[in-house]
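User:
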Amino acid sequence: MTDKGEGTMENSSQDTPQHSSESGADKRARASRTASASAMAAKVRAYAARLVWLVCVLAALVLAVGALLIALKTNTENGLVKGILNLADVADVGVFDLANPIKKFAEPDAHIKVALLNYGLGALAWLVVGRILTWVLRPRS
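Assistant: Predicted structure:
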């Protein structure tokens, strides 16, 4: 029983030097491919983090401009104003909707206060969610 164990160890020790010299080049090539794939994944994650942050900032900006347009009592028949208010309605994702406000205010100018509160909170929420998602996506060094 002892002889078999020793013979097996001798065979494995004889195979190891030859196998390690062949696998040394393979290991370096594999390490190079792994490093290259890791670098590419880091680039993709960094790009995705920037893209997510850009989308969140743009959504917050649309909500802030929408609230400003309502507060300034701009002409809602104007195409640009109507377009921004429609985008703000999309960016509020139904949570910060003006038709179903978080808080109702009494007159005068209740609709302005509702727009400032709801769209302001919506913009803040987009920025917070954007920062969290960016932190999750961005590669660590």
